[in-house]
Amino acid sequence: MDIYIYFGNSSASNYSNGENTFQFFEDFDSDKSWQNIGGGNGSYTLDNSIITMTETQAGTGLDYTLKLVDSFSVNGDGSQMVMARVKITVAKEVHAIGFTTDVNNKNYHYKLYGSQAWGLSMEQPLTSDNEWQVAYAILNDFSGDRPITIGEDDDSSHSAEQQFDWVFVRKYTDIEPAFSSVGTIEIEGTISGQVTLNGNPIQGAKVRAICQDDNSYAGDTTTDVNGNYEITGLDKTKKYHIIVEYTDPDTGQKYNAESKWDITPVEESS
User: Fold this and answer.
1) 59 and 159 in contact (C-beta within 8 Å)?
2) Mean pLDDT of all residues in the chain?
3) Which domains are assigned to the chain?
4) pLDDT > 60? residue 270
């Protein structure tokens, strides 16, 4: 079966679908009237698929917490990972992603950022405020059907504020393919690199590119015998999300690489 991908039609429909790609996906493209379950209060606004949460009243536990979904099945064996793209605009005591409605229970909250030592550690927390960063945690601390929440806490001035671009949960394996990429640009550009597993080049890995600017599917390719890949015909003025998928032909084991964001193409050689 042949699959054809056509590009360059600005009026074409966008068929990217995070809900069909990930086990849980929220990109805040519409207001779902999320409920505050925190001990205090606050308000949120949506603008261009970005949610801004502003705390206005302190309380017990996390002061202002929105419940994104009532129930999500957490395996608890490290086979899932929660990821989020976040900007802390007013950094305070705790900013977190939770898997409980008990806003006092630090054993079900992953700390994104904050001055207070509270909550579970993430494999990749946020390292600074006032800039967009991706944070992630491997879900191996608890299991069961659990809600997913995002919250913030500031007991002193109750003025914490944070922004989320998206939150999702995906499959994860403890050994994932690694890949490199090159970048900086002009009009038509290329993203290239190498996929390795345990330091060895991987042939036959699928590499996909998704444009972050409009969430459009930009193209894909398969790595060669040396693990190298190249995706061409990309817009050098935009940034891309690169995803690698690989299935071992001998064992049938599937691997999903850590997603790479904010990759800028280099100019194609003539």
Assistant:
1) no
2) 86
3) 24-171 (2.60.120.260), 178-267 (2.60.40.10)
4) no
